[in-house]
Design a protein that fits this description.
The complex is a heterodimer of chains A (about 230) and B (about 80). Chain A has about 230 residues and is an alpha/beta fold. Chain A is about 25% helix and about 25% strand. In chain A, the strands form 2 sheets. Chain A has a 9-stranded mixed sheet with strand order 2-1-3-4-11-10-9-6-7, with helices on both faces. Chain B has about 80 residues and is of the alpha+beta class. Chain B has helices at about 15-30, 55-65; strands at about 5-10, 40-45, 75-80. A 3-stranded antiparallel sheet of chain B has the order 2-1-3, covered by helices on one side. The longest helix of chain B is centred in the C-terminal third of the chain and has 15 residues, at about 55-65. The chains are: A alpha/beta (about 230), B alpha+beta (about 80). The interface of A and B includes residues 64, 99, 107 and 149 of A.
Chain lengths: ~230, ~80
């Protein structure tokens, strides 16, 4: 299974995302922001970082990169897409996911291991978790506060589209402790914490992040068989 | 050559940590009588030609597409010197 990892100017975590895909048993495929070509991948990860220096708004300029044209179309057609941190911001700016990410309420960059609850295990990226499973993965952001209007938040909650919620301490002032969400179809998932940094006991606090990448691989295999 | 100015502000219901930090600093420096501060962005856009209604409408479209995120921000637009 080929999983595309997009590199934008200022992406940081593209290599870790590719490594996570490899450890999960997939084939990472490098995608370039300037090429309007998805290279026939079966899924795409938008990695963390500071695309375009976070100028204007986080993700606002990356959202209009040439690769995003075919990516947005494919995501609307059901392609599994995972946005991590800056990738989540890009998905929100693209309106593939509702809401937006704003500066942390306490105004400081936060970098620590974070406990989360997996609240939706029906998405393309979370089927490998148990319902309400608790996981610990790193979180590191300066503008990770998830905001949306009340109606959108109620809708997300009502439809079970809150995928991850912060436990113990909300690191950035996200409304309703929301750490990650999905679209209605469940193929597009965005979250601020970093599962790709928690796939190997040598370099991460846990290996709790690995199931996100194996979930996607298993979903693709199941679809190929069907 | 005409200049169009776009001002972008966070919607009132969105918390503005930068504005709060500025408010706090003003207080520490002894500037009195400030109840609240909100920080926004100002874009000065020089047009290649005159500020015709079509040209201004084009900038308005740019403001809603790229310069602001309608989920969290509002913008106003005006032609400078008019």
């Amino acid at each position: 299974m080929r999983v595309g990892i997009v590199t934008f100017p200022g992406s940081l975590d593209d290599r870790d995302a590719a490594r996570a895909v490899r450890i999960a048993g997939g084939e990472p495929v490098a995608l370039w922001h300037g090429d309007a070509d998805l290279r026939q991948v079966d899924a795409v990860v938008l990695p963390g970082g500071f695309s375009y220096g976070d100028y204007l708004r986080c993700g606002a300029i990356a959202r209009f990169a040439p690769v995003m044209g075919p990516l947005i179309d494919a995501a609307r057609g059901g392609l599994p897409v995972l946005g991590i941190c800056n990738g989540f911001q890009i998905l929100c700016e693209s309106h593939l996911l509702p809401g937006a990410l704003v500066r942390n309420d306490h105004r400081k960059f936060v970098c620590r291991d974070q406990r989360l609850r997996v609240e939706n295990t029906r998405t393309a990226w979370t089927s490998g978790y148990e319902p309400d499973q608790q996981i610990v993965v790193p979180v590191k952001n300066g503008e990770g506060g998830y905001v949306a209007d009340e109606r959108t938040l109620d809708e997300l909650e009502g439809d079970g589209r809150v995928v991850f919620r912060y436990l113990e301490d909300n690191p950035n002032g996200s409304y309703r402790d929301i750490a990650g969400i999905t679209n209605a179809r469940g193929n597009v998932v965005g979250l601020m914490p970093h599962p790709e940094h928690a796939v190997d006991a040598l370099t991460g606090p846990t290996t709790d992040g690995l199931a996100m990448f194996t979930s996607c691989l298993n979903a693709a295999v199941a679809e190929a068989r069907a | 050559m005409a200049r169009v100015v776009v001002d972008v502000m966070l919607k009132p219901e969105i918390l503005d940590p930068q504005g709060k930090a500025v408010h706090g600093a003003l207080g520490r420096l002894g500037f009195e009588g400030v109840a609240a501060v909100r920080q926004g962005k100002r874009f000065e856009i020089d047009l290649a030609g005159d500020a015709t209604p079509e040209a201004v409408a084009e900038i308005e479209r740019a403001a809603g597409t790229l310069l602001s995120n309608p989920v969290i921000e509002d913008f106003t637009i005006h032609v400078e010197g008019v």
